[in-house]
Amino acid sequence: MDRPASQPPLSGPPASIPRVDVLGVGISAIDMAQAVAEITRWVEDGERHYVCVTGVHGVMESRRDSDLRRIHNASGLTTPDGMPMVWAGRRAGAAHMRRVYGPDLLLAVCALAAERGWSSFLYGGGSGVPELLAERLTARFPGLRVAGIWSPPFRALTPDEDQEVVERINRSGADLIWVGLSTPKQERWMAAHVGRLDAKALLGVGAAFDIHACLLPQAPPWMRRSGLEWLYRLGREPTRLWRRYLRNNPRFVVEILRHPPVIRTAGGPR
Q: How many other C-beta atoms can be found within 10 angstroms of the C-beta atom of residue 253?
């Protein structure tokens, strides 16, 4: 699928971080400390990139959609959001890889942002969610600057509405934009806007908005460590998630056995 001519070119991935090719998606071979350090570098050096946090769902959707796969591979970071990505990386030889889970990444970067004075814009979530999230985060991290919030409608924005959003975010002076939409919507939004926004990092963290607004409970730690978070989420939202997990998870296992993950040079597959 070709990118529309009106869409700006995707930002290229940094040249220093190798990736593990997981079924065509380059998963950054990192841990949480490395992810935070890389985002810090972007802010301090004035670079502009976006972050995808990706598990089995994102990889399998990218397997079916070449444009989404290109978006993941052009990111500044595509973090191992789920334990299967970590296991794939270790199988390829990246023994240092650890899970970089969206909700944890949000907290880690916000803690540093409060110390360094970086400002954040919260884009996404249902009505009232970004407001509640801003309240929770600023209470948790005194000094955290939230430059703006916006909950977009579920429909597609008109070009004029989209331009108004871009101008609103840029006027806020935000250094970081937290994007709380679903996959693949948030990845497409970040890729389409990274060249139009002044912020240094766009971070697609999905359900982290609802989790840290205390609207969605997390799986117990032992389930997150064991790669069973999907089962917990399926039990809570079977109607919405059963197709995703019962289609993607078995297919992922079959495909990863046929196409073992390998470490690539920085940037990963294209």
A: 12
